[in-house]
Amino acid sequence: MDQRAAAAKVSRAGCEAARSQVEQGKSRIGVARAGLQRMVLRAPFAGVVADISGELGEYATPSPPGIPTLPAIDLIDDSCLFVSAPIDEVDAANIKVGQVARITLDAIKGKPFAGKVKRIAPYVLELEKQARTVEVEVEFIEAPSAENLLVGYSADVEIVYDTRSNVLRIPMQALLSGEGVQRSRRVLLHRSDGILEERAVTTGLANWEYAEVTAGLNENDRIVMSLDQAGVKAGVRVRAEAKR
User: Fold this and answer.
1) Domains present along the chain, CATH in parentheses
2) Read out DSSP for 125-167?
3) What are phi and psi of 236, to 5 degrees?
4) Reduced to 3 states, what is the DSSP secondary structure of residue 242?
5) Residue from 106, 114, 102 nearest 208 by CA
6) For 68-95, how does the pLDDT look when each residue is reduced to its tens digit (9 = 90+)?
7) Cα-based angle 112, 113, 115 (whole degrees, multiple of 5)
8) What is the pTM assigned to this prediction?
């Protein structure tokens, strides 16, 4: 009976030791899982991997204070595409969120896309040897579907903050001098006798291509476009060339 009781105690002690080893094993598994979770990077959104800064088997550690750490993975979210563009501070006061814009891409020639102002930076950016600008984000109203639209394309944005209809306009390249709108500018008028006359005009709304003329010209007046040609000036007799 004593032998049986001693054997039972030994077996019970062995079971307790086994249970302790099981708990230790579970603890080691928990530690391993915690370490594994620290080594797994999970993206906060679905996207396209653009760049991986590390190598296989390489460890990444935080950098000391003041030294930026490169991201492990450069991930691009292509579900919402927009254009970020600097706007001169002179024009920034006229820009409002929701305004209509036109987007042109260098990679897709001759096809503008409709957009609207999504965000306006709350500060003016001042860079050395550059004009003071405000960063503006313009989103596509309807993203291109037939064209291969890639992240990183260079683009131009034209924000429409005022429009006029049924007005007289001339190309900006026909203006001799002056800056801005609502100012007196000059053009070379081709009179009916073939003589060039310098004519003062008043311009209204303008963009990179055209300027509205509020005074100084009439519809069907002929003006000089090739101002850079030698000898083109007021008082000379010229002959109009056919458009090529």
Assistant:
1) 82-159 (2.40.30.170), 162-244 (2.40.420.20)
2) B--TTS--EEEEEEEESS--SSS---TT--EEEEE-S----S-
3) -95, 155
4) coil
5) 102
6) 778 888 888 888 889 998 888 888 888 8
7) 135
8) 0.56
